[in-house]
């Protein structure tokens, strides 16, 4: 049989290929009108191919703004956009999430259109969102959070902020003043310095104290999901059949605390700023503007100026949120508060006054020279741990501290010139003997055997260490 045009690819061939692939393909002309739309795309978006042909992108997807459409972006710039995740609502009201790449089409030098190739990841996103919500819920429960969802009640007030350090007092006074108004407050400081404590206290001291306080850690949720968590999503979006309000709506009239703001994706920061300026939000995939009245508190555990310089925090958003900006000092810069904090945490974790132990002088000295990279949280943890390990003892000693703390290579260590070598060695030795005794069920002969010591030697060491303890204990007790 003779073939007339063996090399020619017929239009039908092309159509067969374009309709056989798994990806959705959408081609527009130079003005943004649809010239081709494959069967897969129609299935994803639950639209009809013949309805789409000849329709403009913005008409087909009314929830898209010109700036959000990758097809229009490529027509504008002539450059491809690769692997962009987009969520939009179709003319028929279905919300879809796709991962798409969009390419310009040139004839010679003339841009004659754009092709969008995308995969439906609605299901993937739906699952991802569920996982994240569950994880968030679990971690809140694990942290002893009272609430199982994002709605945290603000438990702390300014009177819970312990400290008389001059710098801290100044910051507290500023925060108290800021709390009365509804201006945004930006709090920054290292981990464990009390940012959440301040945020909750500000809410509780202000006119919105009876309204919700909602905290969201922007670093805990993948950026793509944060948007729907903050702004909500519409029916048919990702979490089943119902419309879901976001945290903005849940916090209406109250306070939204955006923890770790600099971890929010920069494009979302732009949307956040727009929402704050406009006073209303739109749910993801939704059209309807929803007015919201929310006081924003934000935090970061690094200097926001650095995050702005490095392009991770938008300058305009930071400017909007930092009418009042509080920098919380690390614990090593307010060591004068350590004794006060120690008493506070001893009382907090040993509420009964009878039998409440004190800290040995060696421990207080160590606390005074340690670097505290985890700040107040780390101090609280050390005291809580010592109360457990030294349960029933009148004096808590170095051996009762968490093991990582007293190791010479501890993260904030190397600053213990105040502690004598002798006291370090003694506490180390006591730890070893204590563990050997515990393993041997208190049997001295057996413990001595396991340590490779004669029984008498172990007994002698025990007497010596005991005498030393009593000396330290009495000295501590006699301190003014
Ligand atoms: N001045 C303080 N007085 C009493 N407790 C404090 C103080 N500062 C911090 N804490 C306690 O330390 C712990 C950590 O505080 P918080 O959660 O506010 O820190 P953070 O700055 O938000 O830390 P992160 O950056 O890790 O989230 C909490 O248990 C809090 O109660
Ligand atoms: Mg925090």
Provide structural commentary.
It is a single chain. The chain is of the alpha/beta class and 480 residues long. It folds into three domains: 14-120, 2-Layer Sandwich (Beta-Lactamase), CATH 3.30.450.20; 126-327, Rossmann fold (3-Layer(aba) Sandwich), CATH 3.40.50.300; 332-478, Helicase, Ruva Protein, domain 3. 44% of the residues lie in helices and 16% in strands. Strands 2-1-5-4-3 form a five-stranded antiparallel sheet. A five-stranded parallel sheet has the order 7-10-13-6-14. Helix 7 runs parallel beside helix 8, helix 14 crosses helix 16 (375-389) and helix 19 packs across helix 20. It is elongated, with a radius of gyration of 32 Å. It starts with 10 loop residues before the first helix and ends with a helix. Bound molecules: adenosine-5'-triphosphate (ATP) and magnesium ion (MG). Residues 195-196, 259 line the site of magnesium ion.
In short:
By secondary structure, the protein is an alpha/beta fold. The protein has 3 domains: 14-120, PAS domain (Beta-Lactamase), CATH 3.30.450; 126-327, 3-Layer(aba) Sandwich (Rossmann fold), CATH 3.40.50.300; 332-478, Helicase, Ruva Protein, domain 3, CATH 1.10.8. The protein is 44% helix and 16% strand.
């Amino acid at each position: 049989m003779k073939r007339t045009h063996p090399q020619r690819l017929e239009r039908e061939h092309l159509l067969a290929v374009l309709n056989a692939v798994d990806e959705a393909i959408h081609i527009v002309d130079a003005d943004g009108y649809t010239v081709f739309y494959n069967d897969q795309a129609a299935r994803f978006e639950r639209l009809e191919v013949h309805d789409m042909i000849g329709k403009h992108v913005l008409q087909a997807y009314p929830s898209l703004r010109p700036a959000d459409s990758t097809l229009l972006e490529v027509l504008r710039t002539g450059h491809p956009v690769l692997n962009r995740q987009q969520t939009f609502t179709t003319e028929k009201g279905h919300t879809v999430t796709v991962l798409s790449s969009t390419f310009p089409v040139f004839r010679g030098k003339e841009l004659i259109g754009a092709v969008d190739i995308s995969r439906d990841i609605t299901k993937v996103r739906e699952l991802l969102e569920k996982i994240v919500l569950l994880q968030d819920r679990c971690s809140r429960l694990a942290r002893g959070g009272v609430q199982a969802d994002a709605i945290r009640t603000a438990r702390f007030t300014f009177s819970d902020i312990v400290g008389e350090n001059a710098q801290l007092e100044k910051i507290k006074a500023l925060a108290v003043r800021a709390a009365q108004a509804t201006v945004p407050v930006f709090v920054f400081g290292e981990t464990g310095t009390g940012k959440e404590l301040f945020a909750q206290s500000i809410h509780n001291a202000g006119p919105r104290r009876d309204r919700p306080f909602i905290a969201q850690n922007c670093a805990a949720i993948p950026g793509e999901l944060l948007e729907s968590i903050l702004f909500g999503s519409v029916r048919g979006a990702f979490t089943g059949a119902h419309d879901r309000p976001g945290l903005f709506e849940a916090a209406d009239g109250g306070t939204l605390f955006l923890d770790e703001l600099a971890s929010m994706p920069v494009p979302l920061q732009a949307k956040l700023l727009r929402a704050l300026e406009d006073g209303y939000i739109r749910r993801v995939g939704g059209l309807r503007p929803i007015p919201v009245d929310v006081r924003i508190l934000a935090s970061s555990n690094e200097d926001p100026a650095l995050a702005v310089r490095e392009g991770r925090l938008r300058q305009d958003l930071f400017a909007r949120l930092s009418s009042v900006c509080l920098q919380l000092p690390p614990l090593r810069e307010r060591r004068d508060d350590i004794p006060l904090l120690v008493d506070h945490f001893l009382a907090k974790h040993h509420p009964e006054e009878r039998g409440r132990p004190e800290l040995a002088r060696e421990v207080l000295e160590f606390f005074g020279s340690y670097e505290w990279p985890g700040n107040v949280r780390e101090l609280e943890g050390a005291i809580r741990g010592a109360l457990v390990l030294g349960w029933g003892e009148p004096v808590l000693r170095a051996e009762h501290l968490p093991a990582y703390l007293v190791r010479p290579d501890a993260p904030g260590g190397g600053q213990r010139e105040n502690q004598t070598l002798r006291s370090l060695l003694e506490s180390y030795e006591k730890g070893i003997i204590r563990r050997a005794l515990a393993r041997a069920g208190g049997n001295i002969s057996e413990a001595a055997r396991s340590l490779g010591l004669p029984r008498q030697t172990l007994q002698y060491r025990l007497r010596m260490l005991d005498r030393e303890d009593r000396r330290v204990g009495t000295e501590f007790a006699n301190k003014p």
